[in-house]
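User: I'm putting together a teaching handout on how multi-component assemblies are represented. Below are the sequence lines for each component of a complex, exactly as they appear in our records. Could you produce the 3D structure of the whole assembly as structure tokens, so the students can see both representations side by side? Please keep the chain order the same as the input.
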Amino acid sequence: MLLLLRRLGFYAIALLIAIAVNFFVPRLAPGDPASALVAKLGTGADQASLESLRTAYGLTDDPLGVQFLQYLGNLATGDFGLSISRFPSPVTEVISGSLGWTVLLGSVALIIAYLLGSTLGIVAAWYRGSWFDRTVPPVLIFIGSFPYFFLALLLVYVFAVGLGWFPIGQAYSMPPEWSWEFVGDVLWHMTLPVTTVVLVTAGTWTLNMRNAMMSVTSEDYLALAEAKGLSVRAVVFRHGARNALLPSVTLLGGMIGAVVGGQVMVEIVFSYPGVGMILMNAVSAHDYPLIQTLFLIITVTVLAANFIVDIVYVLLDPRTREVTA
Amino acid sequence: MTATLVTVRRSGARRRRIPVIAIVGLAVLAAACLAALLAPWLAPYPPDVPAGAGSQPPSLEHPLGTTTQGFDVLSQLLYGARTSLGVGLAVAGITTVMGLAIGVIAAYRGGWTDSVLSLLTNVFLVLPGLPLIVVLAAFLPPGPSTIILVLSITGWAFGARLFRSQALSLRTREFVAAAETAGMGRLRVMGTQIVPNMASIIAAFVVNQVVFAITAEASLEFLGLGDPTTISWGTMLFWAQTGSALLLGNWWEFVFPGLAIALTASMLTFVNYAVDETSSPRLQARELVHRFLGTGTRSSSLITPVRRTDASS
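Assistant: Of course. Below is the structure of the complete assembly, with chains in the same order as your input.
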């Protein structure tokens, strides 16, 4: 428990630094950031949006320290200011619908990439030196060094524009309702974006699992398991893979942030209505309160996901519990 | 058999054949750098003036076709290499120096210095990279220098952690203690005793960072956070996307700049796996690539002090 509390403290500090970045970066610009931004926006920006910008940045005549505390207070009460591009809706309202789509896409892609990549890694490690081991991991490394959005563009071009098997974009094409038909529609629209993320990230899992399995295969308990006459599947999965799983759980924490960044790009290519799409729109409309709130919300999501990974790690590895007890 | 036994004194003195894939990868990179340098002579058209009708497929006149606006894709690709590679190399240099400074100082000084620097490093590692980059870039004037600045601020943390762990193990070695006993100052110990012994891991990191920077730069520009009037592989993709090249079927408009990025990145990744001589976790990946390509040595030369060589070599 002590370990988890310490991790929680660390994430609190990380969040505070993220908030500080959000607070100070607009103030680094010379002059009043709100007026500067309104000047940048030109027409369409009036006194009301100037005021909303001031609220978003907590700009008052108070000293900086007081302003920062007020800003923290605003965030704590859920007041993130108003969107400029969709004035006067609060930014939270603009974002709320999109977070679900991003989490859905992200978690499905992460789970598939993890299961698929790890399984490939286990097989590669078990049949070390076979044709499978010699081709699959290097090909995955090769694809893994592609930028997400380029792979996404290629998939759209071949499978959506060219062959027409999948939709070009969006998350669904029929009115939302609770029916199997709608679920199928959503899955159909998800296929290409998920495939992109899985293709780019699977290689990391494969390599990681392969390396972990290699260090486990020389252990005595695997020899014993084989000598007992257990089937290959039982030896590999029940005795080998279970013990090789820990390093990949550690990697999971580090991967979440990276996958989210890549997924933002994938959503843009596929016009998927997640936070990436909103971020793109916010950038092109110079909607600064929206950009900043998106950053904070994505950060909180990533930190929370990391904390869940920490909890899973403690549950999986009794050693961490002993040390902290 | 005219085989002789050669005793290997230091790990750095091992003679090994450079894997073919490393040579291929470096050749691709060298060709890209050369193309960037010679762009004014190689490019058939000026990159910023429409060179003909828009949306033309590859032909003799326009080897890689023209964009929707009528720019020559080949010329843009050559000139774009200047920005993309330049930004990549600059970011790799800056983040490596930053990571080294922070990592080595943290490891060498220890105590609260280490605690603070490590905390900062871990925070930057856990914050989602791309959204942070977007927030920073959104407030600065668009252009390559902004991209370099922003990617440097966000890209050093992994290096700091890597170099710190490496420096921690070096710090307890005899030669460091000897240098300290001899009265060498802290900065000199770090600069002349610790950092040079990390050369191979630093080299691997630099290569990694070039890949990171080229990909991240392209992502930023694709998002519209670059200066769209600068010509780079990223802005080419940005214009392809905004001009709906995909829907028009103009595959050449995004395939070539995308391939340039993907090939540079994957070749560098392979170079890294192939020449990475340290016993890092990537070692097994290196072996893997070797076996995939049928190159390199499979002997466990890391632990054998003696190896066989042909008299002719």
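A couple of points students might notice: Chain B has one domain: 31-261. The first helix of chain B runs from residue 20 to 37.
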